[in-house]
Amino acid sequence: MSKVQPVEDKITEPQMVPARKEAIVNPFVPYSHETMLNDSVKLSQSHPDIITVDSIGRSVEGRDLLLIKLGKGNRKIFLNGSHHAREYISTSLLMKMIDEYSKAYSNNENFEGYDVINLLNEFTIYFVPMVNPDGVNLVLNGINSVKNPQKLRNIQMVNKNSRGWKSNINGVDLNRNYPAVWEKINNGFLRPSSERFKGYSRGSEPETQAIMNLCRNNDFELAMAYHAKGEVIYWADSGTCNIIPKASEIADRLSKITGYKKLPVSQNPSIYGGGFENWFRIEFKRPAFCIELSPYNGDLPHPDSQFDKLVWNKAKSTGLFFLHEAKTLK
Ligand SMILES: [Zn+2]
Prior knowledge:
The protein has helices at about 35-45, 90-105, 115-120, 135-140, 150, 205-215, 245-260, 270, 275-285, 305-315, 320-330; strands at about 50-60, 65-70, 75-80, 125-130, 220-230, 230-235, 260, 290-295. By secondary structure, it is an alpha/beta fold.
């Protein structure tokens, strides 16, 4: 992980803090990069024994790519959200998980039946809740809020409404940019676009590079990318499904606890190429999943006020679920 600039000095002296009852993260409002940074500081101050905050690099427009580590253990898993800008409800979910899991830990409580203290003493969860902060800013604040609106005018808008934007601010779809059978992607998007353009070269974007560096510098036992919409689980592709045997069982159990549908193995590299989870499987031969949270209802963000119904009620325990599964992998 090169050039890591801490967002906030790590608090190295564990402090006794009284058990906290009130929530820090409010997922019922548009969840911006600034809100996330502010909440991350409050969370780390409230739970200095188990939460640290870092940055793994910067976006095209210079925003910190926030890393939050939750737990005390040497074993690690990796969860990320908002590769796609309009799917920022995945960031709200991950931040709410950190809030609730840390509260359960401090209060010595189970969460949905999971033994939080044992799991977080054995593991640390690495969260990058917002892989694409420039895109999320565009979705939330509009075209005039970007640093170079002129450049944006040359990018092809698939959805005329900027709230339907998916790519980073260079017009590269970050989930098509990873070096995972990238050459085979053939989706007709040949220039910068609000979605689906794979970039002019593999791994070209700073956000993609930061995630790859993080994964290469940490021994993650499994990884998980949260997207929205569809209520489905991607768990395998034809290039790697035979070398990661336990992924299928894990996806079965994940489907059972969430109600999300386990999809067939992704067969076509020209469609699944360039994705984060596909890259992680090729690179590390370990399980990596993608959940599409929330019901499909078109290409604009869901109303934030419906966070519980659309996302939280089904997905709230998935972070702990993956820890529990990682325990069984070894
Ligand atoms: Zn997505």
